[in-house]
């Protein structure tokens, strides 16, 4: 007699922490599409810069003081968030919560200093092509920072409520991918908009 295997007898995949979930692939797809967006924006910046028939940037190379400090602040958040993940994986939930809070505070500080830097500019979005590109690129990045901060706030709240622990932390890891992406994008923006004008050669006559 042929043995019939019922549905309840078939072992179902548990989807452990090491497996790739739908959420993981979803955020990876999001990162890929957003990376393409910033690639197009930075390509536009360099295309216009190389073909500029006047000084580029029109107002001269940007000051590096405040934005350099702000860059260090933002990049440090990747370290604090990574430590938060490690603490949670080790079962130290309170330490993880504290580090998540520090990450959010530093990210908010970056956003605040970014607006301060904008207010110090003597040009606007509509002043010239450079102004349009500058505020569009940095503005879209700042929007990503704000979205990332909201995600981190929810993740910290859920950690506080006990939804995440050493065995169930995948959402925090997935959310961290997006935040690390935001940090990496800023490296390219900082190098392109702030550092490259100081190198000269490719910017106008």
Question: What percent of the residues sit in helical stretches (DSSP H or I)?
Answer: 55-70%
Which shape, going by the Cα principal axes?
A: elongated
- As residue ranges, the low-confidence spans are 1-18
Number of strands: 0
Secondary-structure element series: HHHHH
Contiguous helical run count: 5
In round numbers, the mean pLDDT is 85
Give the distance, in angstroms, between the N- and C-terminal Cα atoms: 88 Å
- Note the beta-strand portion: under 5%
Largest sheet: none
How many whole angstroms does the radius of gyration measure? 22 Å
Helix/strand/pairing category: mainly alpha
Structure description:
With 205 residues, this protein is mostly helical. Helices cover 70% and strands 0% of the residues. The protein has helices at residues 22-50, 65-89, 93-119, 129-160, 170-199. Helix 1 packs parallel to helix 5 and helix 4 runs antiparallel to helix 5. The chain is elongated, with a radius of gyration of 22 Å.
């Amino acid at each position: 007699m042929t043995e019939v295997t019922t549905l309840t007898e078939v072992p179902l995949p548990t989807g452990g922490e090491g497996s790739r979930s739908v959420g993981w692939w979803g955020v990876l797809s999001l990162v890929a599409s957003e990376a393409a967006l910033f690639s197009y924006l930075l390509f536009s910046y360099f295309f216009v810069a190389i073909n500029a028939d006047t000084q580029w940037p029109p107002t001269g190379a940007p000051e590096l003081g405040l934005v350099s400090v702000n860059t260090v602040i933002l990049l440090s958040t990747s370290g604090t968030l990574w430590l938060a993940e490690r603490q949670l994986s080790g079962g130290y939930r309170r330490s993880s919560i504290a580090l998540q809070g520090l990450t959010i505070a530093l990210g908010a500080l970056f956003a605040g200093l970014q607006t301060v830097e904008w207010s110090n500019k003597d040009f606007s979005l509509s002043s010239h092509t450079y102004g349009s590109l500058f505020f569009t690129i940095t503005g879209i990045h700042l929007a990503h920072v704000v979205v990332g901060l909201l995600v981190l706030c929810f993740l910290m709240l859920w950690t506080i409520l006990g939804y995440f622990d050493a065995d169930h932390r995948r959402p925090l890891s997935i959310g961290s991918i997006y935040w690390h992406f935001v940090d990496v994008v800023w490296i390219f923006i900082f190098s392109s908009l702030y550092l490259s004008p100081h190198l000269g050669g490719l910017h106008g006559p």
